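Researcher: Let's run the pair from yesterday's discussion. Sequence first, then tokens, for each.
Model: Starting with the first of the pair.
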Amino acid sequence: MSIPSSLLASESITFEGAIELTQSLLSLIEADQLLQGDIEQAVRSLVKTQNGARGFFVTYLTDDRQEADRPSPGVVEALRSAPEIVAELLVKNLAMSAAMVVYHSRHQSEEKAAGSARVQKRSRNLIQILQMPACQTIASQMLESLQNANGEYEDFFQRWGYDNEQKLAIGSAVRSAIG
């Protein structure tokens, strides 16, 4: 069986288009209707562009199905195909979800806090499975920015307005992901 072209992202895919494609892909994976090679080809087509990768991760990491808790070999190999895009998005997803656990817990939104904790766990798991040097580099830069209040990721922390408690949670999450 050849993969349907409807499961392959074009270079010009939009963020919204990538979300829709990933939802379709996850449904087929759940129904066991794709071979690992097909999964790899579809995910590889998504993560080769920024919009595709962002749409993939926002869907894959937040989805209620269990697929992202046990990434398939096809997903893992596809993610390794685009380390420069994948690494930054994974580390940022880890950081943002750690900060959102704190935020939602403060506001007694336990369901949202649990959703953010799931994204954090899935992001950490992928970082550990992939073992990409780019993840280590970005994580180290992020930790340096947290420690020195400047550097590569200080603008990222400023843009999202993270407070000290959130930054502590981010540091803890990032350190646990890279060992």
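Model: Moving on to the second of the pair.
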Amino acid sequence: MSLRFEADAVVLDIEGTTSATGFVVDVLYPYSRSRFAAVLTERADDPEVRRAVAGVRELLGEPDADTVRVEKVLGEWLDEDRKATPLKTLQGIIWSDGFARGELVSHFYDDVVSELRRWHGDGLRLHVYSSGSVSAQRAWFTSSPEGDLLPLVSGLYDTENAGPKQEPQSYRRIAEATGDVPGRLLFLSDRPGELDAALEAGWQAVRIRRPGEPYYEQDLGDHPEAGTFDEITISARSNP
């Protein structure tokens, strides 16, 4: 069954939507875990690293936490899959380095890239909204198995520049940033709280339901759903 929408822009989740959660958990998480110590020591003077470490200490309520303590907590948050901004920032730095060195190549489901190219060619603007940092998103789309996909993307949003993904205000901020009417934004995600928040902000939303993903069996109520991107037809408004 094909779903049909009218929209000016599509906002994409990554894990469970464009890409397999298993790849992130089984490949990227261990990669970042093995390099936390190095990035905390070798890049301690990097402003982005310093800001992330300060964020860890603030969340812990431990302003004097040393590097060993910070690394330990990062590992614990990783085990919990906690969407903490400092963790995601440091992961993004580590992953960006790995992609740049050719040690990592991102994953996209087979149905995704061709549809992204088609939607872009039809005049739809594409944005990404992920709990992963903007730097991680940029590296992810740059280092796909099908080459650099970043030229397809108009905007990148994360929990730092937009806010938590299950809060409607985050989606309002993105609409303000893109200049789009909320009702002309279409959000694709596999997570119920995110879909609910987008709808509350006035967006359109589609559940992407892929076998093997964490939320596959969960009842998402009345959200329209698609198993693959090619089940979604989007009509873009012609530019004046």
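Researcher: Give me one sentence on the second I can quote.
Model: Residues 104 and 130 are 19 Å apart (CA to CA).
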